């Protein structure tokens, strides 16, 4: 059993049903409010050098996030997960529920729900009502599958906990930017938090921030922001830091993109999630945020005074790659140094050349 | 030997397609409001306006690939920084239109006034149209169409209809033209009529030997995308079906020595149509049907003809939003494929694994297992990018295809 499974098993054994949620931005608050532990199914790279079970179901041109997800769920086979929730974040993910269903042995079948988030602005005709219907359906499914009951007060409480957690995340990133923590440490922590209850996330972040407060800032290197779906592998982050780069902004789907916005607290899931998806920090996977994406990224770079930008591309992620040429061009035009890296499953052999490119980039932007 | 025989319907098609592209260029020059759409966007809506025309970049990319300029256009997009892993339709299109229609056999598409995409075939398409939205500062209207794991639900249909109404208002506002629902209803009738004849054409594959090849259907499907809603489309498909039935009656078939009846799963290999069909023909094999074209004129998960009597035109158009393979799930795909295998007496299935089109391809390994193990039909998987020839090896593909024919022989012993 790997470290993630152990974390989840502890929750499961403590009597909490664990709901494996497909990335990227599932309705965590709602799930938590029903006494279910949500775990977003990503960040598995360090635990699976290979994905033999997923390889029986997916061609090798699926992104690594999808392949790791399938591997995890099939290996786990219901040992720690009690159910699965998928939403339509991208083309790859929407193909997976039935594949997983077929991959799991009949006696390990998991309850699975698919949830459609409107991929248009909530201001568009019918979008809010449709989202509300989907949420009602999700609540009904959760209630039936886990014998729980929705409670608006509990929902609001969960909303507030998540808002507190996001605030702490932002604080922690700020400390990393000030040189009071390494970004690689924060990224590692984030990977672990994903498989904890929000209450424990808050406690862990308070500890992290508390420790940062005691520290004197390390001398700052060249200030860099990073974009992508997930942080690069730990050895690459360490190579960046070793080359004198200070990662001051994390426009990553599991970091800043997920924490930057907290909706107005509410007891009503429909109102809350309409706000959540409409005003979310722009992400390449959230179609209605497309027009806000470059301005948001530029102002993030400005706020964290980053003079350089690293794109950590997830190979085969079309959402990210359609935007790359445009973003690169716009940032270069502003005099921002740009480095584009690509990560995929089994890219260990490329890490050496990547490190060389990072060192060259660090030297270039320092001049 | 299966081969391309230019039938009268084939000659007619060439004229229709050429005229269609030319007409669009001329009408745009004369001030028509130009909409670029994703293939399943209900084109019949635009027929409700006096002077709105639509163009279909995906279809244009297929044309470019078929005419042999796919790779050079892909490279143009890659030189602009677009990853080689992006769908080759998108790369061809961007390579073409960021170079003023360069290399297009149709002279490119007239610049759009509005982009209309949807996320049901793929979300990628919305990202692709967003590129133009940013570069050319043109409005982009996205239709949000829920994916179907089960047949489309009534609530989903209502949601889609409400978005169509929104689209109509958007076009009215941007074009300054008034929408006429009766004209749209007539266009919808034309589409339903065309679909009826299309299914009659496809039914020729049930004949032994088959009256058509899947390659015929690949070529003939083009106006379904670019001329939907027109009386000319209905008339063309009536002509095509009549001619095909007459040829079958006269014993004129593309592969008289047909020994292997195969089914193709994925988008057409546009750059290989002639080569692949004649090389298979030399082996007495005929790909007689394809999931890519047998879905036209039916609903997700079935090959049965469309039945719309109880639906309004907008509801009917909403109801067909999931008919192509990509917007529906494995169970439904399996259901339709089973029906196809049974109705057409298929001997083997060719799964064309297509790096460009993940939405089509990333269920194929399970679908293949289902067909092979549960339906007991031999299968093979080959790598084919539908429009980027660099990602295809003819020799490797044929080694596998020949192995499939051997396993069919084996199963027959
Ligand atoms: S990395 Fe991209 S393609 Fe892969 S699951 Fe995430 S959003 Fe989808
Ligand atoms: S990915 Fe597939 S469905 Fe999407 S545009 Fe390309 S070929 Fe069409």
UniProtKB/TrEMBL annotation, chain A:
Domain of life: Bacteria
Keywords for the protein's UniProt record, in alphabetical order: Iron, Iron-sulfur, Metal-binding
Gene3D superfamilies found in the cross-reference section: 1.20.1270.370, 3.40.50.11890, 3.40.50.11900
Keyword flag Iron: yes
GO function terms (MF aspect): iron-sulfur cluster binding; metal ion binding
UniProt family annotation: Belongs to the FldB/FldC dehydratase alpha/beta subunit family.
Entry protein name: Benzoyl-CoA reductase/2-hydroxyglutaryl-CoA dehydratase subunit, BcrC/BadD/HgdB
Automatic annotation (TrEMBL), chain B:
Pfam hit, one: HGD-D
Keyword Metal-binding included in the entry's annotation: yes
Domain of life: Bacteria
Entry keyword set: Iron, Iron-sulfur, Metal-binding
Classification of source organism: Bacteria, Pseudomonadati, Thermodesulfobacteriota, Desulfobacteria, Desulfobacterales
Matching InterPro entries: FldB/FldC_alpha/beta
Keyword Iron set for record: yes
Name of this protein: Benzoyl-CoA reductase/2-hydroxyglutaryl-CoA dehydratase subunit, BcrC/BadD/HgdB
A GO MF label: iron-sulfur cluster binding
Family: Belongs to the FldB/FldC dehydratase alpha/beta subunit family.
């Amino acid at each position: 059993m790997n470290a993630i499974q152990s974390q989840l098993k502890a929750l499961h054994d403590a009597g909490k049903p664990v709901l494996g949620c497909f990335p990227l931005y599932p309705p965590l608050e709602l799930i938590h409010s029903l006494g279910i532990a949500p775990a977003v199914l990503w960040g598995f790279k360090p635990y699976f050098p290979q994905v033999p079970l997923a390889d029986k179901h997916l061609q090798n041109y699926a992104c690594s996030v999808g392949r790791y997800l399938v591997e995890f769920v099939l290996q786990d086979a219901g040992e720690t997960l009690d159910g699965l929730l998928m939403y339509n974040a991208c083309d790859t993910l929407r193909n997976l529920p039935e594949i997983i269903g077929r991959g799991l042995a009949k006696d390990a079948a998991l309850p699975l729900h698919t949830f459609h988030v409107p991929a248009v602005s909530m201001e568009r005709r019918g979008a809010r009502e449709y989202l509300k219907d989907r949420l009602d359906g999700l609540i009904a499914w959760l209630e039936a599958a886990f014998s729980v009951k929705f409670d608006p007060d509990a929902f609001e409480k969960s909303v507030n906990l998540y808002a507190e957690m996001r605030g702490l995340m932002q604080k922690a990133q700020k400390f990393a930017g000030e040189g009071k923590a390494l970004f690689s440490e924060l990224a590692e922590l984030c990977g672990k938090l994903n498989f904890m209850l929000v209450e424990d996330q808050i406690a862990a972040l308070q500890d992290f921030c508390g420790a940062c407060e005691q520290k004197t800032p390390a001398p700052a290197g060249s200030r860099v922001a990073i974009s992508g779906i997930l942080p690069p592998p730990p050895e690459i982050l360490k190579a960046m830091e070793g080359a004198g780069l200070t990662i001051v902004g994390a426009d990553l789907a599991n970091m800043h993109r997920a924490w930057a916005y907290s909706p107005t607290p509410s007891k009503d899931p429909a109102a809350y999630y309409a706000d959540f998806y409409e005003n979310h920090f722009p992400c390449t996977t959230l179609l209605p945020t497309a027009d806000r994406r470059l301005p948001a990224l530029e102002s993030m770079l400005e706020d964290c005074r980053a003079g350089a930008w690293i794109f950590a591309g997830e190979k085969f992620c079309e959402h990210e790659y359609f935007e790359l040429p445009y973003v690169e061009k716009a940032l270069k035009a502003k005099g921002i140094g740009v480095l584009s890296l690509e990560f995929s499953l089994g890219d260990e052999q490329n890490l050496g050349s990547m490190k060389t490119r990072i060192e060259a980039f660090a030297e270039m932007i320092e001049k | 030997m299966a081969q391309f025989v230019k039938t009268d319907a084939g000659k007619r098609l060439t004229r229709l397609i050429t005229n269609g592209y030319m007409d669009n260029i001329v009408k745009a020059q004369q001030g028509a409001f130009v909409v670029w759409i994703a293939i399943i966007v209900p084109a019949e809506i635009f027929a409700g306006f006096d002077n709105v025309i639509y163009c279909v970049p995906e279809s244009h990319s297929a044309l470019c690939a078929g005419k042999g300029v796919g790779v050079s256009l892909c490279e143009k997009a890659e030189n602009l920084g677009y990853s080689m892993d992006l769908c080759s339709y998108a790369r061809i299109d961007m390579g073409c239109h960021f170079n003023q229609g360069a290399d297009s056999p149709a002279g490119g598409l007239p610049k759009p006034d509005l982009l209309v995409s949807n996320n049901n075939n793929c979300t990628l398409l919305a990202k692709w149209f967003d590129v133009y939205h940013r570069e050319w500062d043109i409005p982009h209207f996205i239709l949000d169409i829920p994916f179907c794991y089960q047949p489309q639900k009534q609530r989903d249909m209502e949601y889609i209809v409400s978005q169509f109404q929104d689209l109509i208002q958007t076009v009215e506002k941007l074009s300054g033209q008034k929408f006429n629902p009766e004209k749209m209803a007539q266009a919808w009738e034309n589409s339903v009529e065309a679909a009826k004849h299309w299914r009659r054409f496809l039914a020729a594959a049930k004949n032994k030997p088959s009256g058509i090849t899947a390659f015929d259907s690949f070529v003939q499907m083009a106006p379904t995308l670019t001329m939907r809603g027109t009386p000319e489309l209905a008339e063309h498909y009536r002509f095509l079906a009549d001619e095909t039935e007459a040829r079958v009656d006269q014993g004129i078939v593309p592969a008289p020595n047909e020994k292997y009846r195969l089914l193709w799963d994925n988008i057409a290999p546009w750059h290989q149509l002639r080569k692949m069909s004649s090389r298979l023909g030399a082996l007495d094999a005929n790909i007689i049907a394809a999931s890519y074209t047998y879905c036209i004129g039916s609903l997700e998960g079935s090959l049965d003809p469309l039945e719309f009597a109880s639906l309004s035109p907008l509801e009917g158009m909403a109801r067909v939003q999931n008919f192509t393979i990509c917007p529906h799930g494995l169970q439904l795909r399996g259901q339709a494929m089973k029906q196809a295998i049974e109705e057409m007496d298929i001997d083997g299935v060719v799964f064309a694994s297509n790096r460009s089109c993940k939405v089509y391809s990333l269920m194929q390994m399970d679908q293949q297992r289902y067909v092979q193990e549960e339906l007991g039909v031999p299968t093979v998987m080959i790598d084919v990018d539908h429009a980027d020839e660099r990602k295809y090896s003819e020799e490797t593909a044929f080694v596998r295809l020949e192995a499939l024919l051997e396993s069919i022989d084996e199963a027959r012993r």
